[in-house]
Amino acid sequence: MQAFIENMPKAELHVHLEGTLEPELSFALARKNNIELGYETPEELIAAYDFYDLPSFLTIYYGAMKVLRDEADFYQLTWNYLSKAYSQNTLYAELFFDPQAHTSRGVEFGVIMHGIRAAQEDAEAKLGIKGQLIMCFLRDMSAESALEHLLMAEPYLAWLVGVGLDSDEKNNPPAKFAEVFKKAREMGLKLTMHCDVNQQNTLLHIGQCLDEIVVDRIDHGVNSLESDALCEAIKTKGLGLTVCPVSNRFVVQSLTSNEIRRMLEKGMLATINSDDPAYFRAYLNENLVELQREGNFTAEEIAILVGNAFRVAWLPDEEKMTYLQKLGAYIQNASIQ
Ligand code: HPA
Ligand code: ZN
């Protein structure tokens, strides 16, 4: 089963580029850019990863980003993730990035965009892994700042597939960003938002995503299972849910395997993702392998979860079909069947 998962052609739809910053790269960039990290070794840094809720994670996550300064740094970050993903047979990835976490430190918007884009182009040309970019707004910053960044992105529109919303959800509902997301939609971008696990007013927030923002996808969204009406709406609209098992475990002490099974039973399009793999110490394969073990999922169920990521990817139908055919051929040939 582990080999079946590891060799399977996969897609990842919920990974924060800044969340792929491995301790070794942090140290290398800190040395290059003359930045004090406050830790002696990568192991010491990893030992400080003691996350128990969203804010405790975000403090470490934003603190570590100070090592990202120039185009080459963003290139390296992106290249490292895409080559790691490719080594796990991930063929397609939609990548979140948090420009406000960099512009607020004096990094120019264009520096971020050019660094990431160059690595995407190289990874596609040299490895064959395709990446698309989703620009996230930090929900604990103002709607005005989000709008400013959306306008900064206008010259780079062809390099973005969508916008998202991340960071601290407490007191920062989707509705706060209704205008910005409306404008993003008018610009031709797809829309998604984080509805993190066990947040205050989570059902209200998921409802706002559906009715006020009219999202194309929901990130996490596990708590939707508490409302039959929300589940029905998510299913009827065919919205994908990007669930992140190992990330969830820091908050709810389980990989949410029961919840993921219930989503499948209800016909909801759940997908499995890594979120912030450098911090949670698990890329897509580890997420799938551990989830399969906890929930005792069959090969067929794993194939549905992996197939869902291609089904709800923000790609033209023909490209989705090509990936799904590749997955289908793999499953037919796999000895596990
Ligand atoms: N939730 C909210 N903000 C984030 C996350 C997340 O899972 N990862 C990185 N920023
Ligand atoms: Zn996330």
Automatic annotation (TrEMBL):
Keyword field contains Zinc-finger: no
PANTHER family given in the database record: ADENINE DEAMINASE, ADENOSINE DEAMINASE DOMAIN-CONTAINING PROTEIN
UniProt cross-references to NCBIfam families, sorted A to Z: aden_deam
Pfam (any one): A_deaminase
Domain of life according to the entry: Bacteria
Domain Adenosine deaminase: 9-327
Taxonomic classification: Bacteria, Pseudomonadati, Pseudomonadota, Gammaproteobacteria, Cellvibrionales
Catalytic function, reaction form: adenine + H2O + H(+) = hypoxanthine + NH4(+)
Designated name of the protein: Adenine deaminase
